[in-house]
Amino acid sequence: MRTKILGVSFDNITLHQAVEKAMSFLQNETTGIIFTPNPEMVMLAQRDAEFAEVLAAADLVIPDGIGIVWASRFTDAKISQRVPGIELTLALLEKISHTGHSVYFLGGAPGVASAAAAKMQEKFPNIKVCGDHHGYFDNADDAEIVAEINAAKADIVLVGLGFPRQEKWIFRHKEHTCAKIMVGVGGSLDVFSGRVRRAPGLFQKLGLEWFYRLARQPSRLLRQFALVKFVMLVVSKKGRNLE
Ligand code: UDP
């Protein structure tokens, strides 16, 4: 079942159900796209029509952020819980370490994707890592990267180029790759690599992960205005449909 928040559709499912659904994509002929929008991304979709269209084309859209769950209180179909993208990605990696499917890491500053891949190889010794590439390349390099993904026969590609670049990149190339799953993972590769620490459990539990990241990286402050605008827009539509 899907719930729309300010025009963006979300799957109203648990982490467990999201993992099952994602794993089912591995049986398909086509590429399954997974996105994990937060309120900042929903706000961008209000003014970037291409981004909104790309989000709508995803096969699995999980609510990454307590703000989305909160906003769903104003809709008919409430979203019962947040599903952090990083947890879905970790759960997927754990699953494929038993099935033999392969994963390619794309994104982050030079060195991050390879460090993330190495750390995941340590964490899940049986996982099949089939390649990595940093995320600071030009559009002119797209074809080469896609060819590398295909040569490596990647089943899953984790794409951490920041939004909206990663979503648009996935959408643009999904039909050119052999991958069965492409996931927009944002800053998760930084966390996997060990260069960035995820918020401690208590912050996660209280839905304050965004606050922890802001405190550690004050340069993110400007981005938080999108959150304020999101809250104002949702409240102004209170009682009306959030579609
Ligand atoms: N990034 C990248 N290429 C770019 C821009 C960003 O690989 O052209 C990476 C950046 O290094 C970081 C990630 O994309 O690893 C975005 O992280 P951020 O924490 O901003 O993402 P969020 O999780 O908030 O979407």
Identify the strand order in the major beta sheet. Answer: 4-3-8-7-5-6
CATH top level assignment: Alpha Beta
Identify the overall geometry: globular
Using the CA coordinates, give the radius of gyration. 17 Å
Output the helix-strand order. EEHEHHEHHEHEHEHEHHHH
Strand count, sense and barrel status of the largest sheet are: 6 strands, parallel
The total beta strand count reads: 8
Q: Which ligands appear in the coordinates? A: uridine-5'-diphosphate
CATH-scheme architecture:
3-Layer(aba) Sandwich
Strand residue percentage:
5-15%
Query: What's the pLDDT, averaged over the residues?
Result: 94
Query: Could you say which structural class the secondary elements and strand pairing correspond to?
Result: alpha/beta
Per DSSP, the total helix count is 12
Low-confidence stretches: none
Overall domain count: 1
The portion of residues assigned to helices is 40-55%
For the record, what is the CATH homologous superfamily label? Answer: AF0625-like
CATH topology, which one? Answer: Rossmann fold
Any key phrases for this structure?
single chain, 243 residues, alpha/beta, Rossmann fold, two-stranded antiparallel sheet, 8 strands, 14% strand, globular, binds uridine-5'-diphosphate
